[in-house]
Amino acid sequence: MDKDMDRKYKIVFSGELKSGHDLISIKSRLASMFGVSASVVEMLFLGKPVLVKVESSLDAAHLFKMDFEKTGASCRIEEV
User: Model confidence over 35-55: pLDDT tens digits?
Assistant: First the structure.
């Protein structure tokens, strides 16, 4: 089996926001993106890194990161 096919990537959010975006709008967009309530989104902003998603390919992780960052929040990709 190809070694690259065994790799997984996690998307991690640490509460960092992109400049020019306000927190209330970011939280609203994240709630819409994930289809969850505002109280669930609040759990992303507790000051600790949060595992948002695990992807089976780097390409899929980059696509998710792009969509996530359209909300105004920053995230990072880490190899599992």
Answer: 999 999 999 999 999 999 999
